[in-house]
Amino acid sequence: MIQTGAPALARIGVREGLLSMPLDDLNAVRLVGSRCSQCHETTLGTNSVCPNCGGDRVTALPLSKQGTLWTYTVVRYKPPGDYKGPDPFVPFAMGLVELPEGLRVLTPLEGDVAGFKIGMPLQFHAFLRSRAEKPQVVSFAFRPTGVSGDRS
User: Fold this and answer.
1) Which residues make beta-bridge pairs with 60?
2) 3 state SS for 60-79
3) DSSP class of residue 95?
4) Whole-number Å distance between alpha carbons of 150 and 80
5) Number of domains into which the chain is organized
6) In a domain, 1, yes or no
7) CA angle, corner 23, sides to 98 and 130, nearest 5?
8) What's the rounded Cα separation, in Å, for the pair 12 and 116?
9) Which domain holds residue 55?
10) DSSP SS3 for 14
11) Interstrand relation of 136-144 and 11-13 (parallel, antiparallel or unpaired)
């Protein structure tokens, strides 16, 4: 068999069990949750045991790409430690996004920090944290609905 083009680089999610697979088409990637068939709790990521009731009848489900900004804060000072963001530091927003499945996700928010409003609709966006990393790490953020663009 003859292969054409460059071989695909290996990609991993920012956290195991958090993003749908495969990770090669970023537009198709979604957050993954787990729903307990005993207590009906929905949690973020894939779980084999329900963290709410301890039940073991848990199934994975893709989570909605649309959510609502429940609350947020603006980080105006460079976080301590090995911060890998822009240099010089640029303020950014972190928010709790409420998904239709009934859970809230703490996530970075993309966009003008002055433009966020509680209750505004947001959409999920998967991106490569850095194209130079090997393997490439797929991360995510939420941004105002209707905004597009390549973060990486």
Assistant:
1) 34
2) EEECCCEEEEEEEEEECCCC
3) E
4) 27
5) 1
6) no
7) 90
8) 30
9) 11-144
10) coil
11) parallel
The token duo for 120 is 């505004």
- Asked, for residue 49, whether it belongs to a domain, the answer is yes
Residues 63, 101: Cα–Cα separation, whole Å: 7
pLDDT in tens, the chain (152 residues): 344 444 456 899 999 999 999 999 999 999 999 999 999 999 999 999 999 999 999 999 999 999 999 999 999 999 999 887 888 999 999 999 999 999 999 999 999 999 999 999 999 999 998 777 788 999 999 999 976 655 54
Predicted structure pTM score: 0.85
In a domain, 78, yes or no: yes
pLDDT at 10: 86
Separation between Cα atoms, residue 101 and residue 31, nearest integer Å? 12
Q: What's the rounded Cα separation, in Å, for the pair 134 and 16?
A: 16
Query: Which tokens is 100 given?
Result: 């239709």
* Contact between 84 and 78 (Cβ < 8 Å): no
